[in-house]
Design a protein that fits this description.
By secondary structure, the chain is an alpha+beta fold. The chain has helices spanning about 5-10, 15-25, 80, 105-115, 120-145, 145-160, 170-180, 180-195; strands at about 25-30, 35-40, 45-50, 55-60, 65-70, 95, 100-105, 165, 200, 205. Helices cover about 45% and strands about 25% of the residues. The strands form 3 sheets. A 4-stranded antiparallel β-sheet has the order 2-6-4-5. Strands 1-7-3 form a 3-stranded antiparallel β-sheet. Helix 7 (about 170-180) crosses helix 8. The longest helix has 27 residues, at about 120-145. Pfam families: cNMP_binding, HTH_Crp_2.
């Protein structure tokens, strides 16, 4: 998909004047895998919108990652969006999971657009609301759901997001993102394998039993 096509799809309800301003002020760029888009403590200068790839949004607690969510194509980082109204620094890290294409909207111009195009407020509010609900569901799972269910949910989500039959991810990475120990995840995956729920191979972890 070209940049113009992406703009038309993402902002399909906006007029031609907005499209032209977006092309003038928006910055289209590519980032490599594991490249940092923003770090905790940074001044937020751009609102990122992902065109292609995947971006992980997380924080660090005693050196351990606390993953908030992943940004998929067409989505923005709502937690950077929320800081521009308070003039505060970023409270999160946003790092690309793979080679990704991103549209960067300068904050100074974005604030002008919010007043000039009220529909932009609505669009980002709806995305904020959706992300907030997702994070509340995640908290409920952490509190109430057993870890083995959370591991299976994690695998389903990664496979869905990657659009593949298997996901190549280490036991340690799963453990880090779910806030547990690698040994615990390894035991759970071994149990799933014996039960015929998953396969583990050099290609990654695949789910046999679809829900």
């Amino acid at each position: 998909m070209g940049n113009s096509d992406f703009i038309k799809r993402k902002f399909e309800k906006f007029d031609e004047g907005f499209y032209q301003e977006l092309k003038e002020y928006g910055i289209f760029t590519s980032v490599n895998a594991k490249q940092e888009l923003i770090a905790e403590g940074d001044k937020v200068k751009f609102i990122p919108i992902l065109i292609k790839g995947s971006v992980k949004v997380y924080n660090l607690n005693d050196g351990k990652e606390l993953v908030y969510y992943y940004i998929s194509p067409g989505e923005s980082c709502i937690m950077t969006f929320s800081t521009i109204f308070t003039d505060k620094v970023s409270r999160i890290y946003a790092v690309s999971e793979e080679k990704s294409d991103v549209l960067l909207l300068p904050v100074s111009q974005f604030l002008i657009w919010l007043q000039k195009y009220p529909m932009l407020n609505q669009m980002f509010f709806l995305e904020y609301d959706s992300r907030y609900k997702f994070m509340m569901e995640t908290i409920n799972k952490i509190v109430f759901q057993k870890l083995d269910h959370r591991v299976l949910e994690y695998l389903h989500e990664r496979i869905r997001r990657n659009g593949a039959d298997a996901v190549k991810v280490s036991h340690k990475k799963i453990a880090d993102e779910l806030g547990t120990a690698r040994e615990v995840v390894s035991r759970i995956l071994k149990k799933f394998e014996k039960e015929g729920l998953i396969t583990q191979s050099p290609l990654g972890i695949g789910i046999i039993e679809k829900r």
